[in-house]
Amino acid sequence: MTTPAYSSRTALLRRGFALEYATLGWNVIGIVVLAIAAISAKSVALAGFGLDSLIEIGASTVVIWELSGTGEDRQRRAMRMIGIAFIALAAYLLVQSTWVLVAGFHAHHSPAGIVWTATTAVVMFALAFGKARTGAALDNPVLKTEGRVTLIDGLLATAVLLGLVLNAAFGLWWADPLAGYVIVYYGIKEARGALNH
Predict the structure, then answer these.
(1) 167 sits in which H/E element
(2) Which residues contact 85 (CB under 8 A, 6 or more apart)?
(3) Nearest CA among 182, 158, 183 for reference residue 85
(4) For 100-139, what is each residue's pLDDT tens digit?
(5) Burial of 7 (0-12, 13-18, 19+ CB in 10 A)
(6) Which of 150, 80, 98 lies closest to 121 in space, CA to CA?
(7) CB neighbours of residue 162 within 10 Å
(8) Closest CA to 169 of 114, 116, 97
(9) Helix, strand, coil share of the chain (percent; to 5)
């Protein structure tokens, strides 16, 4: 016989899995769209956002793995993996954005990038809200942290969108690598949070 508390927790776990699989699916599609858009526009911000999507795939996979089991050791390892992925992203983008600024490289306009990042921002904010509520209800620090990663993904999509629009509308080429620096800042911040958990 199942208790109401057990049934409620099972329903919350199902919701957690559904949110992570939705994030996973969106980001898998996103990597393809962003790779094509980044190569076409030669945009460091779109390339960086594509890498961020790759990290989000890794983070979602880690959370799915963590939700499938229990234990503090498993949670600690999950948080460490997420943190290391963010350090790698920040390091790559720091070098790439600096190189683009120093070289004065001008990215082309990217209508596909603008549409994708705008849509992604909305989707990520909705998923982040669902993960925050579900993680709090389950008292699961890994799901709550990954919810913040998804929120950051939405904020980064907004920053990249702003850089793309400024470049397309006003020819402000430097807005593209500056959007890359925004991702570096948040990547380091999230890495510290995950590794110090």
Answers:
(1) helix 141-170
(2) 55, 58, 59
(3) 183
(4) 888 777 778 889 999 999 999 999 999 999 999 999 999 8
(5) exposed
(6) 150
(7) 16
(8) 114
(9) 90, 0, 10
